[in-house]
């Protein structure tokens, strides 16, 4: 056996220059590869392993050391791993091709070819595994950088929007006060109700920006209230919007459900979802339906707000609660993001599902006994 190994190694060494030339002529190598000068050196290192493998079974560390070195170079050169695999298997094929030309009997050659295949199989496995590991680490580092950069921009935007919105809020409060005076002094004056409603909507949008730009909101204290009564107030407030969208609204709310929460914040959540629902059903012919239901199950109150508007594509549903994501031409992309933050602040969660029959926003809030102060 030793003599067969010696003969085969001598034959391969005699043809090494032809072997390397053939390999370099047919391999995939990019001109911009920063390690292009290492190619022949790496090929010779693999050839040395081949010679060692025919004399004895290599230990894993010997294969890994070279495989990891070359994988690191391939990753740093940003080369497609497919090219590396092709070049490795090309080298394997050439080694076996020249081995078959050595003149050794097949019964002596077969065990040696098995050793060569063992080496190349393990070498490819460790190199590809290491390459994948390095690329995943690189991707995670880039994602971390992007995420941090995104957070920094959100923080800056929040600071700017908070200051900017406060400048609007003060004169708006004065205008709304004067509207109340006009309604008192001139109760029959036309359009005051419409103006007041639009100003309330503007105030609501301003509050959204404040919610998005502040971590803690101290505008009110938590209180216990009936969920049914809150929705009655909201539906009355949004009545002009329901009429404008020609939308039918129905409810199925357990009148005994009591909620311990920041009432103004939950009002904002429900108004936002209902306004989005009105916009959605406008895109479909009649009947345009919006349904609100609420019930208790386990330790949670479950609220579902559904509409029969167009289905939301799955890829949009996945990102619908992300900040500044919007499909509306004039949308801010903060409404549902704020809704999510408010619900989570209350110890609950919110989800969205959508199909051809309905789009539903489902909210779960802890029962009153699970108060979160």
UniProtKB/TrEMBL annotation:
Signal peptide: none annotated. GO terms for molecular function: ATP binding; phosphorelay sensor kinase activity. CDD domains: GS_BA2291-HK-like, HisKA. This is histidine kinase. Residues 163-369 form the Histidine kinase domain. Keywords: ATP-binding, Kinase, Nucleotide-binding, Phosphoprotein, Transferase, Two-component regulatory system. The keyword Cytoplasm does not apply. Pfam families: HATPase_c, HisK_N, HisKA. It comes from the Bacteria. The keyword Oxidoreductase does not apply. Its EC number is 2.7.13.3. It comes from Thermaerobacillus caldiproteolyticus. InterPro entries: HATPase_C_sf (IPR036890), HATPase_dom (IPR003594), His_kinase_dom (IPR005467), HisK_dim/P_dom (IPR003661), HisK_dim/P_sf (IPR036097), Histidine_kinase_N (IPR018984), Sig_transdc_His_kin-like_C (IPR004358). SUPFAM superfamilies: ATPase domain of HSP90 chaperone/DNA topoisomerase II/histidine kinase (SSF55874), Homodimeric domain of signal transducing histidine kinase (SSF47384). It catalyses: ATP + protein L-histidine = ADP + protein N-phospho-L-histidine.
